[in-house]
Specification:
MetI-like_sf, mainly alpha, transport, MetI-like fold, 2 domains, transmembrane, Carbohydrate ABC transporter permease, transmembrane helix
Length: 278
């Protein structure tokens, strides 16, 4: 009986910790909705409003009147979806090559790839802008899509995942059956590493959706604004309507939550895959 009580006590603390952590994580979204559903005057009072109000739809209507909200959301969907699919294909393909193929200079190339992750992306802002400008891509969606079609982190992640998830014997059996290298990658490797792909896809989609600096530099025309750039234009010079801005921000956050909820099972499986292997 004593052992049973000792086992239950740590579980209680564990569940309590998980509950508190969940509440702390969810509070920013709740507070965002509280501000977005009240007036800015109510938020600026002391103590501020702590429960949702009744003005969310009014604030949302103001957002729709000020910016092309749905057009900007569509641009963000196009950019984020295209970049995510491209990153999943190219990074998994490169990760497969680094993990399972033997070619000259493989280790040196992989070290060089890891070294690029240490360079701040802001350092490449001006050279990248000059290249995009020379190509005539300013104010076009491909100016944001093409530079992000492959990522060093994605290659590193897929290389590590494929190394641990795909046994060499499976690939040897495929070669003996006459499979080409690409067919082995497409028919055997990709179906096996779905959790890793889902994890990389969620991270890539969220980072691309929330990207602000590069789209701000290359997208000047309002017709090609992403949702993050469009929300920035809600700021006035002399007055900031926080309720309207937070209402728009809350609506722009919903797609990310939906994507995460749809693929959360694969996301968790991808992160814990190595922990359950013998």
């Amino acid at each position: 009986m004593k052992e049973v009580g000792q086992k239950k006590l740590p579980k209680i603390f564990l569940y309590l910790f998980l509950i508190v952590s969940s509440l702390v994580s969810l509070f920013p979204f709740y507070w965002m909705f509280v501000i977005g559903s009240n007036s800015t005057t109510s938020v600026n009072q002391f103590p501020p409003a702590m429960i949702p109000g009744t003005q969310f739809f009014e604030n949302a209507r103001n957002v729709f009147e000020r910016i092309d909200f749905f057009g900007s959301m569509f641009n963000s969907f196009i950019i984020s979806g295209t970049v995510t699919l491209s990153v999943l294909f190219f990074c998994s393909l490169a990760g497969f090559a680094f993990a399972k193929l033997n070619f000259e200079g493989k280790n040196m190339l992989f070290v060089f790839l890891l070294a690029t992750m240490m360079i701040p992306p802001q350092l490449g802002l001006i050279p990248s802008f000059m290249i995009i400008s020379q190509l005539g891509w300013i104010d076009t969606l491909q100016a944001v899509i093409v530079p992000a079609m492959v990522s060093a982190f994605g290659v590193f992640w897929m290389r590590q995942y494929i190394s641990s998830a795909i046994p060499d014997e499976l690939l040897e059996a495929a070669r003996m059956d006459g499979c080409s290298t690409f067919r082995t990658y497409w028919n055997i490797v990709l179906p096996t590493v779905k959790p890793g792909l889902a994890t990389l896809g969620i991270v890539t989609f969220m980072n691309t959706w929330n990207d602000f600096l590069w789209p701000l530099v290359v997208l000047k025309d309002q017709s090609v604004h992403t949702i993050q750039i469009a929300l920035r234009t809600l700021n006035d010079v002399f007055y900031t309507d926080y309720s309207m801005i937070l209402a728009g921000t809350f609506m722009a956050t919903v797609p990310i939550l939906i994507v995460f909820l749809l693929f959360s099972r694969y996301f968790i499986a991808g992160l814990t895959e190595g922990a359950v292997k013998n």
